[in-house]
Amino acid sequence: MPQARKKAKKTVVTPSRLTHHLQESAFLFSILVAVYLVACLFTYSPTDPGPFSTTNSDHVQNAGRILGAWIADAFLGLTGYIAYLLPVITIFAGWRVWSKKPDDSETGVMEVVAAITGLALFLLSSTGLSDMHLLPPAGSMPANGGGVIGAVVASPLLQWTGMLGATLFLFSMMLVGITLFTGLSWFRVMDITGQITLSIIDWLVTRIANMRDWFAGRRAKAKRGEVRKTDSIRQKGKIAPKIEPQISMPPENTSKRVAKEKQRPLFNNMPADSLPPLDLLDEPHDQLPGYSEDALKALSKQVELKLADFGVQVDVVDPYASPEEIKEEYSYELSPGIDGPYHGIVVAVNHREYMDLDEDYFLSISHEGAVFADLKGIFRDKITSLNYWSL
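Given the sequence above, the corresponding structure tokens read:
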């Protein structure tokens, strides 16, 4: 009979302490080498000795002395301007060694081969592009912009494909080399670039919209100031309102027939006066508190300002209010008189002088089809010829 076999467990390789220390040492050493390369390359002088130098001067101007002069002359002569990227490449290579995780040996070898291949492709393609498109000043470099390697790479490509073909081929090889050496995904770069671009465009659109709203608010504020100024000048020439109270006539003497046919009381134990007792009425329902006088005046002011934004002139009349106190508290002036006819009338207070007015008076100071807003509801069921509205 076939026997079951125990599945072999995959062993997880853990780095030893010595391996970790060696990786850290390699990274630190790469930083020191990069600093030395920067000092040597940026203090290069054509008069210093080196493999590509034609002078025999014993005076060394390089910060790395004789070794630094030889290293700078060799790298600049071989790779041209690309030599200035060697410190960055050195630090990145050290970081790759330090950040490398333990993995399968075969995969690790393939990664090393891919990184070396990418570095070689990058150096060949970038030096070729530098040789074709960068021309250093005379006497400042040991060779052309791409050095000896760039001249060897660019010369045959220029003969076979021309400037355009050689540039496209070398540029594509440089992108492939960067991907193999660094593991960078160009599609990820395009996604991030597009996201940043869209975010910037959205931010600009939002800012432009906010600026338009801000300018519109400034224009509305300036227009409101002009309306207030014009309204103040217009109201100064008006005559103070004079509301005549209606005179109630005394009732006529009733005749004997009227007294005879008068309605007899329906309830017993009625008081001697003509009014029935209050206990005959139902208990009042709980009523919510309404608007106070100050709140109504504030609402009236807001309504006036909103109407002024649309070019509507408003006359505010209150015979009991003090013009000085109103101006100090609400920053607007009362109208000294009624200058009709109006397209709308708003009654916001229940003064006795207003309660004695009738519909004929309001018809005389309003246009046909005017709106009558009764905030207190004191003219409910009394206004029929105007467009009546109440809270």
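Residues 186-236 form the longest helix (51 residues). Try to locate this feature in the token string yourself.
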